Fold each of these.
Amino acid sequence: MRSPKISRPTRALSEYMAMALRRRLPAPVVEKAKHHILDTLAAAVSGTRLLPGHQALRYVGGLGGVREAGVVGTRIVTTAANAALANGMAAHADETDDSHFSSHIHPGAAIVPAALAVGEKIGCSGTAFLRAVVLGYDVGCRSTKALDVHAFSAAARSTHSFGGTFGAGAAAGALLGLDAVQSRHLLSYCAQTASGVGCTVRDTEHVEKAFVFSGRPAHSGVLAATVVASGFTGVDDVFDGDRNFLQAYSPKQHPEALADGLGTYHEIMGTNLKKWSVGSPIQAALDGLQAVMTDHPIKPSDVRSIQVRMPPRGTRVVDNPAMPDINLQHLFAVMLTDGTLTFASAHDASRMRDPKLRSLARRVGIVAEEKLYAPAHPRRTIVTVTTVDGRVLSRTTDFVRGALKNPMSRDEVAAKARDLVAGILGKRQADRLVEAIWTIEKVNSVRRLRSILAAATPRRLS
Amino acid sequence: MTKGASAIGPEMRKLSAYMAGALGRRLPATVVEKAKHHILDTLAAMVSGSRLRPGKGALKYVMTLGGTREACVVGSTLVTNAPNAALANGIAAHADETDDSHAAAFVHPGSAIVPAALAAAEKAGADGQGFLRAVVLGYDVGCRLTRALDVKAFSRTSRSTHGFGGTFGAGAAAGALFGLKAPSMRHLLSYLAQSAAGCRAQTRDPDHMEKGYDFAGRSAHLGVLTAGMVASGFTGVDDVFTGRNNFFEAYSPDPHLDALIDGLGRRFEIVETAIKKWSVGSSIQAPLDSLAYLLETYDLTADDISEVNVHITPGSAKTVDNADLADINVHHLVALMIADGGVTFASCHDWRRVRDPKVKAVRKRVRLVPDPSLPDSRDARQAIVLIATRDGRRLSRRTDAVRGTPANPASRAEVTAKARDLMGGILGARRTDRLIDTVLSIETVGDIRRLRPLLRPATP
């Protein structure tokens, strides 16, 4: 009959999962979680107007299903798994969503949609929703650490997809009230469905990437959790014993990492937000340009040339590609011209044909410098503006705004969210959304969020 | 466009073109006949599985989800969206071990592919011929995929060939039925690569539920889901099999890309797939073949027998030695066949018979002998059964090629007899006969949805 032998990390993890909704969290964790929930919901809403999110909502709209959870930015209400799929794809429709460096996953995009969908399905409280999200980060990030992030990525497998599945499944399972035994079965179902390879770096339209990073993981997590909640049983310890999951997928395994620091260290505290809704390597450069522009009011006509010196990792991706939101030169031209950068202006492909912007973009050069990289400041970037009247204005950014050593304030998080959603939900609803998340403890049912996040379903991309 | 985005290797080019042309391509008559056997055998597995715990659980689960009425859940009156129907029917098809299996590819192809093809065909309103060709394609793609991964090396890593092969096979069948052209087929293969999963820890699943989920349910579900996504316009990587961070780099220490297209259009994997004569675990097929032969040839009953020795390989013995589940417990099944003079689907799955004094009395005389002299190969799970009779005779029978395997294929009559045994009690005799006739003349079916009323239970 059932083997009673459960390894220590699996036992600790499953017992932690089963109790997560009843456990009080420290105030800083609650505050940080609110930032990530708001930021991810904003990413999902804005993502519904980008190609991956739009494709997903169209597809899910055709599947029908019991009205359990809303697809944000639309009036579609469908099953929790379908909603998680659509909202997950929308949340990583571009690169505005959060990311966790040491586990190499984008936790919010997979976990928040899964938690929201199941939260709506069962009508859970705001506190339960928040605790489930925090648990999702804790399980998802630990799962890829247990697989050894470097060895796993080097093997061309996608940490994002694997970690997202466990995180989404954990959050969904907690909301469905799974006990420790069921949580162990859930982990096994997540293991049976965790998948994904790194070829997404070659995806030019970001659609497959959205599926792999967050759409599929959110969907699989909800599927696994609801299947187990409805009575499916499975293997008691998929992380240990004969033919276990860690052996199956990673050349190096750290099972102890599954439960390391549970309850004392919360992975959400180690997750980065993005101030700018653009590709990662451009964040520090925009921080630098903004700082120069704040100290020295300059107009586009003042600029003779701009040099951006940055570590080599990622420079190739942002050096004048076709997509506006990952094109450094174009984004610099937009910020210089508009005085700031918004989600809309960063994603407006039509402006790439603007001759004035193009002329300005041609004056921006990227220099990849290996010596700027150090483990303590992996993205140190130096922006140097040379003006037509001969001034040389330079700014070094060591820590990207939104990253752990330079966190965004609550106001900045709210301002970013408003920028991302106001055009779709309207200003009033945007304010209501921010307010609802800041006071999420007072929300009796997260179904209340549904109407706030809804908008007329878009027929085509704007 | 980043450089190299549209670089497509020769294997991908050929495979995707073949997939896109599959529904328009005539198949040899022997392949059509063999495909009918596997379709019928898998439908029967779904029907019988709908009454086992995994199948019942799957129906109960998808019933709560609702969805656009696109495809039926076998053994019920539920019609739901195609991915959910594929999920439930897949779990039912591998609710136990009665479904077909491909030894060289180490995949249970039917249980993932037939449910996916049925759901996609119902959604698309395909005809019987399109459905059959899509199923054949599914076997061809799913089984070649695990061969390309290198079955042995891949299994050694504890990853599940079943989950991986099943996902690709299910997706290929669904994609063909959704009318994908070659460029979309390439994107679909990338989505399937992103969805293929499974870990062999499922061999430790005592209830066969996670196994049904991994082998078949999840695979069929994601195959239909991703094929539907690509059909609705989702785009992806053009060649997931070569180039940076490709699928084989991720999963295979020793890939054989040429195996993806080896013999495409000439060698059909469905022909190399085994149908089980007995609705029990693979390792118990040969013992039951041998035992049935001895009982019949020498006209033996329980009272005649003083001892039974069952020789199988040590590896097989580990799986079936007094196993938890009745249908993979060799001691019990041998005793059951002797006690009843034969076995049926119902008797093999009736766990109460494990405590039946009549069966228990025989079971005391059954001994399992792990025999290292038998070849340790999945292609030929051999067995020797030795019977000592009370009147002093020593009778033995060795089974080299199990009935139903490619080396000793089952006849049409045997396949239909098994299907009747599995389905009759649930669909009723008349509906069962009509279903069998319909599958055996599937080319004449104009709309596959005609199968729907035949797959409903006699009494809901």
Note: Residues 171 and 223 of chain B are 4 Å apart (CA to CA).
Amino acid sequence: MMRVLDFAAMNTAVILAAEARTGVDDALAAARSFIEGAERRFSRFLPESELSALNASAGDWQDISKDLLEILLACAAFHGETDGLFDPAILPALKNAGYDKSMVEIRATGVSPRSGVPQPPRSRFGEIKIDSTRQRVRLAPGMQIDLGGIAKGWIVERAARLLAEWSMPCAVSAGGDMVFRGYPTDGRAWRVNIEDPLDPERAILGLRLGPCAVATSSVTKRTWVQAGHLRHHLIDPRTGEPAAGNGLSVTVVADSLVTAEVYAKALLIGGQQEYSGRASQRPDLSYYVVCSDGRITTGPAEIEQLPSLDPIHFEYAAPHV
Amino acid sequence: MALTSVFSFLIGWAMLAHAPKPTQASAAAQSAARPLPTLAPLAPLDLSGNANGAASSFTHLDIQQPQGMFGGAPIFTTGGS
């Protein structure tokens, strides 16, 4: 039997689960403390965070922590690997689309009136200078970055590693982005339901998984209205606007949550042509795309094996079992 | 047997007839009773913050709790956040 601890952090619900044995409660508490501390360092909404200090230093060299350096190096690698589809430097465009304060504030008071105005060309993440030896970076003048999902993935992975040192098997989930270590003691696999992006109360796919990471990007979760138009938080770096593809959500299963986070976002932003093309370059990934026309596309090898979106729930043994 | 039954019934009837009756509230007591005041309506639940501008302790969350247990482990849900 597993001990489960759930709490709110990173503006979402966090679930920690670990096999119940001596010391497990201390392990859960330590993992929670780590998550809450890391959130304070990498949130763009906290003016005292390390990320806010970095964004404020654009144009100058800034000393950073080893952890932030590790995340930024991963960002640089994925920015190149995805040909720029993954670009943390979209923050000015994201703010201009209306996401310039937390979703809690947007839902309470609406978007800021200063958003939605023409913007000068923004910097690309590739313009960042990273000096690993001296542990410092220089953002291009005017550049602002949002670590969003990749920081969350990094935090969850670290928390799972911490938890696993105390109690295996274990799992950490933050808003549905999750890492599994080991196999459940009494079950053959971890069970993960993929929810219908148009009806979160309904599961449309059930996955059975072994040790792995799962991330989902969706255009239906963080939404708001700006000047009469429905907007979402996934900015297409090619246009500077919320992505307009036919995907409603993309779930990626990978060995690393950071990888799953990046590819879930890149596939959703890239659209149909990316599903088979870009994902085929990473045969270690499995993906599940829920399209706006109700189809589910999976890959890389299982396309055409799934029924249509309606009627719903069946179980699917992912290759990672 | 029949006489005993009739006799027992009569004794019981006589005892009940002379037993104390429930008392009724007096007119004075009734006049002293006052209807309870109507409670003031509850303040609306403000999710946006309080009068001082401080953030509310309530937050909107995209809760994705485990939907149940399977083999002793939670069943997870993923849908983006």
Note: The first helix of chain B runs from residue 2 to 17.
